[in-house]
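Please decode residue identities from the backbone states below.
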């Protein structure tokens, strides 16, 4: 199995920055592919950034140039660096993992509990 624990959320003003962390543990093979998703109240969960098993990344158009996904393989931590935050970035952010390529589709097998990000104008 895989366990994912997110941290780093909080409240910030528009234009500010936050760095989210996702501590991963469990079967390494089952978490070869990882991603960040977010879900705002009343909206569907959307993919924000993803990283494949060899470090290639992909981003939602809405966050390109502002968010960066990165991984510390030695510490088994996935990061999401978020800059130039906007009120529309307000959402619960989730870390996800899978043994197969999923990209930004919300079909990952393993999910964390989420961390709240609130951006005020």
């Amino acid at each position: 199995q895989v366990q994912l624990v997110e941290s780093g959320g909080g409240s910030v003003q528009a234009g500010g920055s936050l760095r989210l962390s996702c501590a991963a543990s469990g079967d390494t093979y089952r978490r070869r592919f990882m991603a960040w998703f977010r879900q705002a109240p009343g909206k569907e969960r959307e993919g924000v950034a993803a990283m494949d098993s060899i470090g290639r990344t992909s981003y939602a158009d809405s966050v390109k140039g502002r968010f960066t996904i990165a991984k510390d393989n030695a510490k088994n931590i996935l990061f999401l660096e978020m800059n130039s935050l906007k009120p529309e970035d307000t959402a619960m952010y989730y870390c996800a993992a899978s043994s197969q390529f999923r990209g930004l589709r919300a079909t990952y097998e393993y999910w964390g509990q989420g961390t709240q990000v609130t951006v005020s104008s």
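Observation: The longest strand covers residues 18-26.
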